[in-house]
Amino acid sequence: MDNMSYPVILTLMVPKESKTYRYIYFVCFLFLCLLILSINIRLVMVIIMEKALHEPMYIFLSHLCINGVFGASGFYPKFLSDLMLDSYVISSHMCALQTYVIYSSLLCEFTILTVMSYDRYVAICRPLDYHSKLTKITCVRLIILSWIVPNCFVVPGALLSNLRPFCKYHIDKLYCDNWSIVKLSCVSSSVNNVYGYFVAVIFVSCAVCIIVSYIKLIAACKASLENRRKFWQTCLPHILSLINFTFAMLFDIMYSRYGASDIPESLRNFLALELVIVPPVFNPLIYGLNVTVVRKRVFTSCNTARKNVSETRKRGKTKQIVNRCTVLLQ
Among positive and negative, which fits the CA dihedral 150, 189, 9, 255? Predict the structure, then answer.
């Protein structure tokens, strides 16, 4: 392929009024990036350090948070550098890498949520079999499976999108995605469409499994007050995360495949960014605030850290006073 059919450099959408508000955008997205890193890493560290949280549900939650950080790494560093340098370009190889990271994270989130729904189903509908079914080995297998399966679909999709002759150079989005790259090609996109529908069927089947499990959960919760308590404390955050993620995916599909130039640019940017902003912020917050055990552990560890800092400061001041008194006595 020659350079005309396979361009090395691609251009991305320039944010609205970027010349005027470039530094404001930079500060806002830097704050979002640090927020995502802090709340997700904080929750993971609490789950790792607290032995009381070494249960399958919280282990799966920690991997959901790790996946959120992984997905954020595919968007925020590049976008922040674009804002700082005022240069919205990307090489075709880096574009493929960004597509892989973002969509691998999105599909991994879906499979992790599916595994979490299975965990809640066994915990509430079959509590006597919970520890025999969800052993440590089973949890490890489910986690590995939730990472491997999405990547088995994302890698071929990324290759199908990038191993094509390009006739256009501009991606009408703030970051790279599969369909935006496909639209740059001069050849037919029928193979990509068929593969996209195939992947959609696979993950819609995961959604059906989640829906069936929650239908059974709701039926089981009607007969027991204890089950209703478990449902509201542990299943409600999962349902909210799933609804939030589903709407984010629908927004992204609508924007990528059916977006039109007559849609306002601010709305188009919102549809594009909602997928990479809301889920990684929403998931740890809703779990950390709603699940009582996690909330108590987080606040307890925060208070302990504050006490340790204050005690260290007091000791430092005491040492300074003693040193001064020693100097005066000499």
Answer: negative
